[in-house]
Write a structure and sequence with these properties.
RNA helicase activity, two-stranded antiparallel ribbon, Rossmann fold, globular, single chain, nucleotide-binding, ATP-binding, mainly alpha, 5 helices, helicase, 41% helix
């Protein structure tokens, strides 16, 4: 369960913006099936996830995985995008939603630019 007092990634308090983004994120379709997704992920090595554009697949699912502990012990949760601009945009958005700094807890990579996450959990 998410502790809404202290950001587990920065050990600092969450910003007001974090709570605004969180409330909006909870309206996305993937939030309605969050536990179902995590249950399937726990039982299977591979999952094909299909959803409409804007349903939260790209930004929310990696955060669900981190929250459930899939990114611990120096492992990483990765999300791929077919284009550099999309990859940069998604990583920036996920960092904003997690209330962290890009290049610290969230990174991105493309053929011409790499911004690795310095912190791994």
């Amino acid at each position: 369960m998410l502790n809404l007092t202290i950001n587990r990634y920065t050990n600092g308090p969450y910003s007001n913006r974090f709570f605004e983004i969180l409330e909006k994120g909870k309206t996305l379709p993937v939030w309605q099936r969050k536990q179902e997704f995590l249950d399937i992920l726990e039982r299977n090595q591979i999952m094909i996830l299909v959803g409409d554009m804007g349903s939260g697949k790209t930004t929310q699912i990696p955060q669900f995985e981190l929250e459930a502990g899939y990114g611990v012990y120096r492992k990483q949760v990765a999300c791929t995008q077919p284009r550099r601009v999309a990859a940069m945009s998604v990583s920036k958005r996920v960092a904003e939603e997690m209330d962290v700094t890009i290049g610290e807890e969230v990174g991105s990579a493309s053929d011409s630019r790499i911004v690795l996450a310095r912190r791994q959990y």
